[in-house]
Specification:
The protein is built from 3 helices and no strands. It is mostly helical and about 100 residues long. It has one domain. Helix 1 runs antiparallel to helix 2. The radius of gyration is 17 Å and the shape is elongated. The termini are far apart. It is found in: Cell membrane.
Length: about 100
Amino acid sequence: MNTFFLCISLGLCFLMFVSFYRCLMGPTILDRLIGVNAIGSKTVVLLLLIGFLYERVDMFVDIALAYGFLNFVAVIAASRYFHKRKGLYEGSFKGETKEVS
């Protein structure tokens, strides 16, 4: 069973690198925020898998919940900041706004 959790963890790390690429090369701020949020969500799952590997799930659940809450608050705060600055969308400079559907 440990081999299964280890293989899943390695696959999740690969997916985190794909999201990290989106954070670095995203064309808009919104793409970068979504990439950061995806990395945070995958980190929560990775923490739980580490808890299963070390057979200390109770401790790692607390850490994963705290990290997930901090990730959620940070992404919401950043998105509100960029929304107030009108910098979330590509064409949103000089007073122009773009509608999102």
